[in-house]
Design goal:
The complex is a heterodimer of chains A (102) and B (170). Chain A is mostly helical. Chain A is built from three helices and no strands. Chain A is elongated, with a radius of gyration of 17 Å. By secondary structure, chain B is mainly α. Chain B has six helices and no strands. The relative contact order of chain B is 0.06. Classes of the chains: A mainly alpha (102), B mainly alpha (170).
Chain lengths: 102, 170
């Protein structure tokens, strides 16, 4: 049997990689992909807890389903926003998105 | 070392290496395809957690739909003028320190916590059982999620639809 902490540490590593991507990237689509990585890390946590702590109720599996639905909404609306800004600014570079700065 | 543990390490290694490529590659197309690889490996981990239905959902929605949507957006946005600028910004060092501290802190607390793991964890949750739980216990959240999806669909269409010079939706 795989220990629960293996899954939790894996999830922590995946989440940290997502955090790094979110901080270090400047392309809007890559930022969205990094957020997806972080969402997936959280889902791995939910699934691991579902199997090891509430194996009968499957609460984590239901939560993962909801999180997947929310993630799909997020990426859909996010990409629509990115496309809209791309039309007006002609770039995907988030450093150039400074409409609200001045 | 049992076969399950070996399979776990292989899948976890695939997912983590793919994730590292996503955040370090200089070619954005590679990033999208390694995103597909990472999410599929996470789906494999779900199978190891006795959740075949969620693994299917993962591959179907994340690996299938989201990656396709990302590719289409990329092709639409790259069509006019691909910018030669680097994909990374100047705060890579700070970002690495923050992420490493976060990873070590989280791993420390996770490994030192006392989780109340149940004795019998090899219960297979069938898809039928998930359906029953979803439509009995979690019926209201399920309906709310469907409304959220509808709002997201309408919002995405409204945002992405092209406006002409007069500011009206074409």
């Amino acid at each position: 049997m795989i220990p629960l902490t293996h899954f939790l540490v894996f999830s922590a590593i995946l989440f940290s990689i997502g955090v790094y991507g979110l901080l270090a990237r400047r392309n809007a689509i890559l930022l969205l992909i990094s957020v997806e990585l972080m969402l997936n890390a959280v889902n791995v946590n939910f699934m691991a807890f579902s199997r090891y702590i509430t194996p009968k109720a499957a609460t984590g599996q239901i939560y993962t389903l909801f999180a997947v639905a929310i993630g799909a909404c997020e990426i859909g609306v996010g990409l629509a926003i990115v496309l809209t800004i791309y039309r007006s600014r002609q770039t995907l570079d988030v450093d150039k998105y400074n409409l609200l700065k001045w | 070392m049992s076969a399950a543990l070996v399979a776990f390490y292989i899948l976890a290694a695939i997912a983590i290496i793919a994730a590292v490529v996503i955040v370090t590659s200089s070619n954005i197309m590679h990033c999208v395809f390694f995103h597909l690889l990472a999410l599929t490996a996470v789906g494999g981990l779900y199978i190891m957690l006795n959740a075949d239905f969620i693994a299917g959902v993962q591959v179907l929605i994340y690996a299938g739909a989201v990656t396709t949507m990302l590719l289409f957006t990329l092709m639409l946005a790259k069509a006019k003028g691909a910018q030669p600028r680097a994909l990374d910004n100047q705060q890579r060092g700070t970002a690495f320190i923050v992420a490493a501290l976060f990873c070590f802190g989280l791993s420390f607390f996770v490994t030192n916590s006392n989780w109340s793991v149940k004795k019998n964890v090899d219960i297979i949750i069938s898809t039928e059982r998930i359906g029953r739980i979803l439509f009995r216990t979690y019926l209201i959240p399920f309906e709310v999620i469907s409304v959220v999806l509808l709002v997201a669909v309408i919002g995405a269409v409204v945002l992405a639809s092209k406006e002409d010079e007069k500011g009206e939706n074409a």
